[in-house]
Amino acid sequence: MMFLKQSLSIASYEAARVSLVPEITTDDVQYQAELILANRRVNDFTVAVTPDVATATVGEFIAVTSTAPCGSNSLIGSFFFGSKQLTSRVEMRKEF
Fold first, then answer.
1. Predicted TM-score (pTM) above 0.70
2. Which of 16, 21, 75, 88 has the smallest CB count inside 10 Å?
3. 2-93: what CATH class?
């Protein structure tokens, strides 16, 4: 589960960094997180970005939340983890 938690944290952080780039869209931010999670072979993940990056004002915090179930991302299956999910959330303040 350490690999899963670390993967979610990395994806959320890197996507939040992308959200600070001028003229970027929410879809671009989501794509960055999805790309990282897919490359790390995380299954059944979801990524949420709030608020909409294009309409966020300078000084507003942009949050990226990545979530994935433990069961479908475990070597031993869902026997021990059941329906438990891990989540990572990163917030960064828009600067431009």
1. yes
2. 75
3. alpha beta
